[in-house]
Specification:
Length: 779
Amino acid sequence: MRKYPFIVLFLFSFSVCFSQVKIQGKVMITEDNVNKSLAYANIRLYRKTDSVNLVTGTSTAEDGSFLITTSPENYVLSVSYLGYETHFLELNLLEVQNNLSDVGNIILKEDSKLLSEIIVGAKRTQQDIDRRKVTFSEEQKRNAKDARDLMLNLPYLLVNKINNSLTTSDGKGVLILINGVKSNDSELKLIAVDKIKRVEYYDIPPIRYNVSGRVLNIVTKDFDSGFSGDFYLMAGQLYSMFTPYISYVSGRNKFTLGADLFITPKRKKKDLYEGKYIYSLQDEHHEYSYEKEEQNWNNQHNVSFAYSNLKENDYIFQAKGIIGFTNDNSNETRNVQYLINDIVDSKIGFLRNKVNTFSPSFDLYYSKKIKESNELNINVVSSFYKNDQNIFSEEGGLFPFKDESDIETLKRTYIGEINYITNIGKNEFSFGYKSLVSTAENEITSITHDANREPNNIHLQEHSLYAETSGLIRKLSYRISLGGRLNTIKTSSGNTNIPTFTPTIILGRAINDDNFLRLTYRVSTGVPEIQQFSDNSIMLMQNIIRRGNPDLKTSVHHDVRLNHSYSRGVLDVDLSLFYQNDKNYIFDFFEREPIDNKMFITFSSSNATKNYKYGINADLSIRPFNGLRIGGNIRVYNHFFKPTKNAVEIKKYFIPITIYSSYQYKNFSLEYYQRIGSNSLEGLYILGTEKVSYLNTGYSYKDWTFQLSYYFPFVKNKFKNHTIDDSIVQHTYEGWLKSKERTLGLSISWNFNTIIKPYSENRKLYNSDYDDGTFKLKQ
């Protein structure tokens, strides 16, 4: 009988050791005296006797809820989020009922301390699987002229003074979203700085955003009713632009009206080119040497309007329209020495291209909350492009020719997408269907073709199904996207169906508070522009014709990379090892082809046999002291290219480098940007890099900002391009873009904002049609 107490003690110890207790609760914050759920807050559990080693952890779901399971002991629960004070709660799980401890609602308080650092420090930066979440200090907000200026506290971001838009340090564009709604720089500047809650900077956006580049999503507090406006005027030798935007909020309604007016003048200073084509045709040797002067000028004007109506935590309705007018012009005059066998022909050639485009588009969006953790999103977009294009080409001499084409294109595109998002625990699931239908009708009149031939029509359809989930398993973050896409292309050569599978798999882990490691695999497709499928053609010069290719295929891009991000104090570093492979890579190709019983060289888009590259990419941003920022990007990679099965594979390595620096002292600012030359391989051409650079000074006074920009100040904007050895046409030329060198620009901007009462919106889908349907002489 003495052993029974030991048996009872053993059974009790066994039940304690192996029983599990659940801890549940909900995290909230207070805004405008209303408690709101907080998603993605950090939940950490420590033993009461050991506050260093983490027992387990998770993050809150979209509705702010969390659930973790552990063994019954005494613990300390830590709840934290960027910009809020960390909340600690002691838990005794040895005496809970029904193995469940409900801690109820935990309300976090804003961190009211004025942090001394002026950088985005580690305490204000959180790296997730596909994005970096950042909050800003009060000092950063006080020093920012407007909401866009506040974004420059983020590493690797800057304002490109040539086009006045946010870009990455390597010159790539950034898609701006405000609470998930596609916006632009002017609309971002309409937001009061104190309304910025946090920023989500995606380098791998969710599949529903329908973009492959960088995305900057600005999450705001409730907007204030009243008027806000931003007016930007820039007058310069290189270009001039005017972007007036004004917004009015009243109750549940928001109205925004804006315009983007852009003019590149026809300058007397012309761009200069000198080059040579060498090729053989029907056993004849041809050399075509030229000296060319080129002028480019254009007007691009867009007027946009938007209306939104919402009921917070219930629904959003948004209607947006844009009307665009574009006039593009280019003229070139060339002095030619044309050698065919032993015959020399000296002559003058001309090429003129003029395009007028009218492009209205309309966008409808509706989102509906279904309970607290589910959401339905619907987006419908229609766009219309009407292009009137005239192309004229002529040469005199012993072998004269003249070619002129009038191309009238009507392109219609309709896009529809439906998306459903649900949250189960700490995991988010997203499902969607998207359909795109696009039609281009070409009516062509040409002096070298039958003027009465049938119109050239092109039809493109794209249907996509996708599903996406993201979450956290122990300490491993993940995001998995599975997409299936069917492209149907109907041209003069027949119908083509191209199915593709487009998965994205991201695995990541936080090594510590400063280091984050990710492994990514992505597949995306590249659909050719609709005119690349066309039968259009124009004679560019003696024996060389630019034309479309109805047999062109969609390209498929594979991207694998290992990424390490480091962020601490004044230093941010992002390193990536990458491998990229393109199936059916689209490039411009020379080939010999008989036309009307005569042999010509045709220049058209084609699909390559092989195209891949691998290397390393590094981004650096450092703030050594108050007001100074230095950064840059360097990319070292090998590029392999094989245009056709019988061609020789080309292997080249390249090292493009970009550096930038900025300094701000009180109301004064100084910025410098320089792209250091490195070649690149694009299809048959090895291209020299345009040496983009500018020096900018600024002064701010109240709501006004004045800036003076000096473009291409220290180097001549020269480059040299040439074809690879395996091209049937050997083309070498040097360019000198004199029209851009040492040009000045003066800009003035005025930003204002009034306050009445709150307003808010949040959108989850974005679609548009980037292809304007123009027949391009150069891709």
